[in-house]
From TrEMBL:
<dbReference type="InterPro" id="IPR016161">
    <property type="entry name" value="Ald_DH/histidinol_DH"/>
</dbReference>
<feature type="active site">
    <location>
        <position position="244"/>
    </location>
</feature>
<feature type="domain" description="Aldehyde dehydrogenase">
    <location>
        <begin position="13"/>
        <end position="469"/>
    </location>
</feature>
<dbReference type="InterPro" id="IPR016163">
    <property type="entry name" value="Ald_DH_C"/>
</dbReference>
<dbReference type="Pfam" id="PF00171">
    <property type="entry name" value="Aldedh"/>
</dbReference>
<dbReference type="InterPro" id="IPR016160">
    <property type="entry name" value="Ald_DH_CS_CYS"/>
</dbReference>
<dbReference type="GO" id="GO:0004029">
    <property type="term" value="F:aldehyde dehydrogenase (NAD+) activity"/>
</dbReference>
<protein>
    <recommendedName>
        <fullName>aldehyde dehydrogenase (NAD(+))</fullName>
        <ecNumber>1.2.1.3</ecNumber>
    </recommendedName>
</protein>
<keyword id="KW-0560">Oxidoreductase</keyword>
<comment type="similarity">
    <text>Belongs to the aldehyde dehydrogenase family.</text>
</comment>
<dbReference type="InterPro" id="IPR029510">
    <property type="entry name" value="Ald_DH_CS_GLU"/>
</dbReference>
<dbReference type="InterPro" id="IPR015590">
    <property type="entry name" value="Aldehyde_DH_dom"/>
</dbReference>
<dbReference type="InterPro" id="IPR016162">
    <property type="entry name" value="Ald_DH_N"/>
</dbReference>
């Protein structure tokens, strides 16, 4: 049983004033593996005060000084890869194949922030005006459980590169992973107060961050419902806000697609991170003329998905993060049957080889209409829907008929045609015949999928405001 008793404020390990203990679970077994002591409002206010005090000094640092600090952080994170990998598998249940990528991702996002910082234009001349990009102040960074270390490091690196100081509220469900990140941050010897990490509940620590007048910027990744609440709180003090929220992403298989290529990509897009991904391609659109062929190929691929022990290299789908999430996914599988969808693969309950833990049978529904709740609501699990379209225009209309707009995937043999279809989809990111990630490109959503962008120069700009100095 592991106990996490401390948070990080002003460069020091600190015992929270909060006294609530929160159980940590191994989702592959359902067993309690530890406890974390949660911070409260007073802890949060102390962290904000430390970040505020550190802002004047940090915002005045040079690009070279920030690059040096971020490089030290990158190196400390690289040395922590194995410890982070073990924490991810144990506490989150990510399959090892995915967990290895997740353990390396923090280094990648810090590297990208360094590259963006080196290339960023902080001053430019526009007519009589000298335009300076100036850091906003204290940034409140609120991160989810589905890629804990990556989100902490990505948001923090961008904030620090821009000259902001930060208070981070990571998910209380990811405390073991957070400890690895804090250790790396301390090893990087950043100035006191530049970063502060306060583990606690969203309605306690998160609420204080989003309402506190000394926090100038909020960057949040999580559910759309929580994002709306944060936006309302932030409006009171005109905080700048970046929200990366939910998704119900479409995957369009065009009528010229080779199913041997398209089906594996469609399944991979839908089941990434065990289906617990905001960008997951959970709505698969297939041509009416090839409906039976597509459904059969998708069902066969879905039935072959390996679910089980995250430590097994052959596993591609691990457990849900919590019993609550498992119950949520089960309820949507039941709902799909009640709505009249056809079960092509999977179904309720655990896979036969998983008698304990929060495992879900990878489930594929056919005969789905876009007005069904399973086609409209974010399930956040390995549950995919197949819908048919008449022609290209109909496919685009169905893809865009959603309140979300985070990501999409278009699959087809004619690359130029596929790109033309991609251009008509209302989403912040559309991939064509690939699931490749481009860290230099902006990432964020349209509509209810969020506000603002992260990554690259766009991610740095989100922590700054332009100031015009006009002289003659």
């Amino acid at each position: 049983m592991q106990r996490v008793e401390q948070i990080s404020i002003n460069g020091q390990w600190v015992t929270p004033q909060g006294t609530e203990l929160f159980d940590l679970f191994n989702p592959a077994t359902g067993e309690v593996i530890g406890q974390v002591r949660l911070a409260n409002e007073e802890d949060t206010r102390r962290a904000i005060a430390a970040a505020k005090a550190a802002f004047a000094g940090w915002s005045a640092t040079s690009v070279a000084e920030r690059v040096a600090a971020l490089t030290r952080l990158r190196d400390a994170l690289a040395a922590s890869e194995q410890a982070l990998l073990q924490a991810i598998v144990m506490e989150y249940g990510a399959p090892k194949s995915r967990a290895v990528w997740m353990a390396r991702y923090p280094v990648a996002v810090v590297d990208e922030a360094i590259s963006a910082l080196k290339a960023f234009t902080f001053r430019s001349q526009t007519g009589l005006a000298l335009v300076e990009m100036t850091p906003l102040g204290v940034a409140g960074l609120i991160t989810p459980w589905n890629s804990n270390a990556g989100f902490i490091c990505g948001k923090l690196a961008a904030a620090l590169a821009a000259g902001c100081t930060a208070v981070v509220k990571p998910s209380e469900m990811s405390a073991l992973q957070t400890q690895v990140v804090i250790n790396a941050l301390h090893q990087a010897a950043l100035p006191p107060g530049v970063f502060n990490i306060v583990t606690g509940r969203g309605d306690v620590v998160g609420e204080e961050i989003t309402r506190h007048p000394d926090v100038a910027k909020i960057s949040f990744t999580g559910s759309t419902a929580t994002g709306k609440s944060i936006l309302r709180n932030a409006a009171e003090n005109f905080k700048r806000v970046t929200l990366e929220l939910g998704g119900k992403s479409p995957t369009i298989i065009l009528d010229d697609a080779s199913l041997a290529t398209a089906v594996p990509l469609a399944i991979q897009a839908g089941l990434m991170n065990s289906g617990q991904a905001c960008i997951a391609g959970t709505r698969i659109l297939v041509p009416q003329s090839r409906k039976a062929e597509c459904e059969a190929a998708l069902a066969k691929a879905m039935a072959a998905v390996n679910v089980g022990d995250p430590r097994d290299p052959a596993t591609t789908v691990g457990p849900m993060v919590s019993e609550k999430q498992w119950q949520r996914v089960q309820s949507y599988i039941r709902l799909g049957l009640q709505e009249g969808a056809r079960l092509l693969a999977g179904g309720e309950g655990r896979p036969e080889n998983c008698r304990q833990g929060w495992f879900v049978r990878p489930t594929l529904f056919g005969g789905v209409r876009n007005e069904m709740r399973i086609a409209r609501e974010e399930i956040f699990g390995p549950v995919l829907t197949v819908m048919s379209y008449r022609d290209e225009a109909d496919a685009v209309a169905i893809a865009n008929d959603t309140e979300y707009g985070l990501s999409a995937l278009v699959l087809g043999e004619d690359r130029e045609r596929a790109q033309q279809v991609a251009a008509r989809i209302h989403a912040g990111r559309v991939q064509v015949n690939t699931l490749a990630h481009e860290p230099r490109a902006p990432f964020g959503g349209f509509k209810h999928s969020g506000i603002g962008r992260e990554m690259g120069a766009w991610g740095l700009s989100a922590f700054m405001e332009p100031k015009a100095i006009i002289s003659v």
